[in-house]
Amino acid sequence: MLFRDEDLNDNFFKALSHVQQIHANCKVLLRTHHQRVGLELVDMMAVYQEGAYERFCRIPPPPPPLTDLNASID
């Protein structure tokens, strides 16, 4: 699935930031007696982050303005 320009809005970046914050908070769990839960959450957040980055990188570049196309034809 490719993103369209309207898909890359504030909600996308807020969700990605939230995933990063959860990932950082898991470090606290790793220092306590809840290491298994912390590791599972770290793994889940890494999967979400990787998926978001992959989708973000697959966004096709915008087409050049028509004026640039006309100039290259001349």
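^ that was protein a. below is b, sequence first then the tokens
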Amino acid sequence: MIRLGKPEKLLNKHLYQCGQCLKKFSRRDHLRTHEKNIHGEFAGPFKCVICEQLYKNTESLRKHIAKFHFSTINETIQRIEVNA
């Protein structure tokens, strides 16, 4: 016999709902992050200044730059320091 937990707990998995797009979340902090990044004053799109790719929020853009352009940024900084 497999025990899944209390039935009422399973039914209330997504207790928090966005008032603008009706997307549901199981945690309040996830709802707040969604509201800020998708519907907030500073919601995207944000363009990468290196490759011009667009992102929905600043956190996605930051991760993109760290993953794909970190070496480019470091090389540029080193060139500036050498020329200074």
